Description:
Blueprint: H1 21-25, E1 29-36, E2 46-52, E3 57-63, E4 65-67, E5 72-73, H2 81-84, H3 89-92, E6 95-96, E7 101-103, H4 111-117, H5 127-133, E8 136-137, H6 163-174, H7 182-185, E9 194-195, H8 198-203, E10 209-210, H9 212-223, E11 240-245, H10 267-280, E12 286-291, H11 298-306, E13 310-314, E14 330-335, H12 343-351, E15 354-359, H13 367-380
Parallel strand pairs: 7-8, 9-10, 11-12, 11-13, 13-14, 14-15
Antiparallel strand pairs: 1-2, 2-3, 4-7, 5-6
Helix pairs in contact: 10-13
Subcellular location: Golgi apparatus membrane
Protein name: Beta-(1,2)-xylosyltransferase
GO molecular function: pentosyltransferase activity
Amino acid sequence: MAPHLPSSLPWNTTPTRPGSCEAYFGNGFTRRVDLLRPRSDGGGGFFRCYYSETLASSICEMGRVRLDPARIRMSEGGEELGSVMGRSEEEELPVFEEGALTIDGRVVVGGEFLERYLRRGAVQGHTMRALVESVRAAEDGLDCGQWIEEPTLFVTRFEYANLFHTITDWHVILSPLGYETALFKGLSKIIQCEGASAKEFLEKPNDQKTARLTEFGEMLRAAFDLPVDERQILKPVSGHNVLFIRREDYLAHPRHNGKVESRLSNEQEVYDALKNWAAHYSKCKVNLVNGLFAHMKMKEQLRAIQEASVIIGAHGAGLTHIISATSNTVVLEIISSQYRRPHFALISQWRGLKYHAINLAGSYAESSKVIHELSNIMRNLGC
Length: 383
């Protein structure tokens, strides 16, 4: 039985105002387009799409469909890193040949439909558009070696060695929101949404607030058998956990040129200074947690996140875990001049977390400045 998620809210089936938080993070797919309806006797296939004006994307459903793996070409996966260095993204993503999907019935997917409901936009390889474009009709029925009757979710996963992309893959699966969700859309477009608890949202509805991303974080915790009710999460009885998420240099993308660039060149120095500061901090007990996530199982990572009062880290994929943080967690991001990107400021905003940033002139952080910022945060926590 699925666990109760405190932030879970009913899926809105009534029209949602374009540009609202629900349209970005919930059901904004309010325009239905039927390309193929079932026959009057209930037989044959069907093909319908739901379009979101806000995300400019669609979710499509099909019935009585044959998938032909022989007509789908893509990289094998599991290759040695050196062999894929510099490979273009187009070589990584699947190519759907004509007839990759065949549907039982007469249906034609034309260019007008694709441009209106599955616009290519700035995406070079729009795999969902390419998949729909590959659909062909089988008016005389389907010949299949195996039939799967239960609903099946067809997802293109990007699978970089990068937690941000892993989480966005999981988000698309657990909260199906089409091809480009707000986690990506927000990087190029201002999304005026603030995180709120489901209780607050129900008591005082506001279409500029959302609990959807908090619900997703609870889904992740539940998947690893961790408490989802914050009243059941055991934090230190005395003092606060300050989690320092360590970042190890690595190649996160196959198209990477092979040159590793540090986000925080003196990370060990900063960590050692914080450790010394925490040991001598007299206002309350501060437990500095060494977040070596690259050497921890996912459940251990999530547990460290939910037990933290403050999460510190250089800009990097590990900070994506703040999606699963508790509502009173404070985020402190250290940002080098080469990586001024809003990923984690936005996630904090959409989660309703307090967020602070230290913007560096290069990649070197003055330990005293980090300690000063953390001291102010601790004072605001009553410590």
